Amino acid sequence: MNKRDLLLSLIPPSRPPAYTPAAFFLHFDPAFQRGQAAVEKHLEYFHYTGMDFVKIQYEHTFPSLPHIQRPADWAAMPLYREDFFEPPLKVVEGILKAAKEEALVVVTLYSPFMCAGHAIGNERMLAHIHEDPLAVRKGMEIVAESVLNFVKACIRLGVDGFYTSTQGGETHRLADAALFDQLVRPFDLLVMDEANQHCPFNILHICDYTGSYDDLSRFVDYPGHVVNAPLTVGGRPFSMAEAAQMFQRPVMGGLDRHGVLAHGAPAEIRAAAQQVIAAAPPRFILAADCTVPGTTPWDNLRAAIAAAHQTDAA
Predict the structure, then answer these.
(1) What distance separates the 2 farthest-apart alpha carbons in the chain?
(2) Which of 68, 225, 286, 294 has the smallest number of CB atoms closer than 10 Å to its CB?
(3) Do 17 and 9 form a contact (C-beta atoms < 8 A)?
(4) Are strands 284-288 and 251-255 parallel, antiparallel or unpaired?
């Protein structure tokens, strides 16, 4: 069974694969975020670590828009068409040509809410949302259309899926479910449904990079073939077995991006990986809870992946 078949075999609730697949992600130095240098660095990292699919980092955030100072200004949000995304699309195209026969190729996809935060600034965006959500929604519709242009272009190039990252439901942001349902959920679903309609392997990533969650139930019906969930919810540990029970899908994660992966010795990393796998559900991918720090030694990630590959799936 090659790496493509291995990952795809996780999706139906059938016999688990012969070993536990694994993957970890990090941002490369700016010198390797564009053009052929990005293509080569992604491939170097994929082959060195031995991970089971290629995840393409997204390094082309929306430009800052300091002129949007009031909620009413959101109506003038610029629409970005496919030509705006040419730099990341060139990277996607190059990696697909080099790696698609060997492994699934998945593209990082920031949600419309996250993209709007890059353009407006998170603090100003949240202030506008609470002041006049209807005015902000007009801009969010444009942002979502821009993101959808990127998704459709990636699909035409032949990607196998997306690592769809969602934020907004953290306790410090839009704890008000009505605001989340008005300004995050519909635009998440717009782009995620497009991905799920056309791609066989999409990962729903509930991102806690900027804060924690009290409840994940609002994401239960989000699309995605695999779920990458946080390690803590409501201030307590949230296990991969609990995540599988909640989402009724294969799950991915189990290791703290700031823990032994970043600082441990190889023997410690192997032991931690084996401990996570022993408690994990059968349909499981060993990974971190989010992108690991860029300073994490590749050898540490390689050790964790090797430990997973030496462990029979439950």
Answers:
(1) 56
(2) 294
(3) yes
(4) parallel
Query: How many CB atoms are closer than 10 A to CB 20?
Result: 27
**Torsion angle, alpha carbons of 271, 273, 278, 281, to 10:** 170
Torsion angle (degrees, nearest 10) of CA 228, 49, 159, 253: 0
pLDDT tens sequence across 14-35:
777 889 999 999 999 999 999 9
User: What's 83's DSSP letter?
Assistant: G
The alpha carbon torsion through 195, 196, 199, 204 (nearest 10 deg) reads 80
Query: What b/e sequence results for 204-232 when a residue is b if at least 16 CB atoms lie within 10 Å of its CB, and e otherwise?
Result: bbbbbeeeebeebebbeebbbbbbbbbbe
Burial code of 275-294, b = ≥16 C-beta within 10 A, e = fewer? Answer: ebbeebbebbbbbbbbbbee
The closest alpha carbon to 255, from 309, 306, 291, 226, belongs to 291
Three-state secondary structure call for residue 64:
coil
Low-confidence ranges of the chain (pLDDT < 70): 175, 312-314
**CA dist., res. 293 & res. 237, Å (int):** 21
Contacts of 122 (CB under 8 A, 6+ apart): 210
Domain boundary assignment for the chain? 3-309
- Neighbouring-strand partners of residue 163: 108, 203
Quick: pLDDT tens for 251-270: 999 999 999 999 999 999 99
Strand order of the sheet with strand 105-110?
54-56, 105-110, 161-166, 203-206, 226-228, 251-255, 284-288
